[in-house]
Amino acid sequence: MSAGLDSLSVAELVNTLSAELKMDVAPTDLFDHPTLDSMVSYLSTQPVDPDLVVRANHPMDLQSESHEVSSSAEGGRRAVVVAARRFQLAGRLSSDSELRLLSSRAFEVNTHVPATRWAKASPTSADAGLASTYGSFASGDQLCIDRAAFGISVIEARSLDPQQRLVLHVGYAALRGGADVALQGGRRNVRNALLNRDIGVFVGVEASGLLADEQEAPNVYSTSGGALSITSGRLSYTLGLVGPCYSIDTACASALAALHACVSAVGVGAECEAGAATGTKVLSEASNVATAIGGMTSPHGRCHTFDRRADGYCRGEGCGTFLVTLRRRETCDGGQSLEIPIAGTAVQQDGPSASLTAPNGSSQRRLIEAVQRAISEPWGAPTLEAHGTGTALGDPIEVRRLPRAKVLGCCACQPL
Q: Measured between alpha carbons, how far is 314 from 135 in angstroms, rounded to an integer?
């Protein structure tokens, strides 16, 4: 099917193969084995006796035992870890060192909306008008796609939501980066090593609405190009991964919810040997204006979280992927772990609160304590990365509820 056969061509090919090879070849065989190599491999295992029709389900080859990840204690303790990570963020950030510099405020990436993205909006108030023109924007080349590398036609590439393009590039980069560590597939032929692997894809994503603004006329790819379900499915399909695959939209928590689902699938449910937990976001004019009118974003384009200057947050773009796997702890020459351990995760909902978007302090406290229960052992100094909306509503609720939570068993002598 990867050769671009339509339904009529499929029927003709099936009839020809059945006659020439003296086999009972069904149209579904072409869908089960969509590439030339996979079809040849399949046919070579089938009997040529025309009286013998084999219709058993052909199991997918999930690689040899050396590729399987066991949860046993063989050779030492195993833990759920991040084996590789890749990201593409605003300001062309793509390395750990650049991210550290950004977090230390060595530079900033917040800017006005680039002229190539959309015209300056004119909401109902001056503050909302200013807020809607700020953001941290990915560059044009980051939002493009190497269609040839992924076997995508020109027409389909133009119909892809930029978030799908980012997930393809960054997700594949993370899997490729971890191939020689977690997947044991080697770097020289990563695509073949990943084919039919029991690897899950979990993507935290919100609808961008960009295609509706950009496309001049709908085409056969319009639906799949903008569907949230396809954002995760496209990575699994393109690389031939057979693990669980779904997109998650929980607004600001989408990427964290995707990581939780990934950790649960790899470490708890043993649904897959590894998983790619991804979060992606690309801004649109409509969403920027809507959040500005709602008073959520800062008219100064800056986040002053837990500060009296706080007047909202600044939205940003990018994509990041964690390759999560169940692995033994390994050390480098310096004795430090080569991987990032994940001690535990938990997800809860706010429940009843002042409004649909208002936080609930009691629910936040219960969530922190739920994470504590999920952690099987003490885990270093207690720290917490806050939601930090930089608003007069959200910040006080977050800060005031923290002392009431039993955070990682901390006490007065071990402050948060």
A: 6
Q: Cβ distance 135 to 281 under 8 Å?
A: no
Q: Does residue 203 contact residue 278 with C-beta atoms inside 8 Å?
A: yes
Is the whole-model pTM more than 0.85? no
Ordered alpha helix ranges (H), 104-142: 126-131
Taking the C-alpha atoms of residue 326 and residue 319, their distance in angstroms, rounded to an integer, is 23
Q: What is the pLDDT of residues 131-189, one digit of tens each?
A: 788 899 998 888 888 888 888 999 898 889 999 999 999 999 999 887 654 444 444 57
Torsion of CA 220, 242, 188, 58, to 10 degrees: -100
Task: Show the CA angle centred on residue 100, arms to residues 97 and 105, nearest 5°.
Answer: 130
Cα–Cα distance, 223 to 352 (Å, whole number)? 35
- Cα separation of 115 and 368, whole Å? 42
* Secondary structure (3-state) at 195: coil
- Please, which residues have CB within 8 angstroms of residue 268's CB and are 6 or more apart in sequence? none
d(CA 300, CA 266): 42
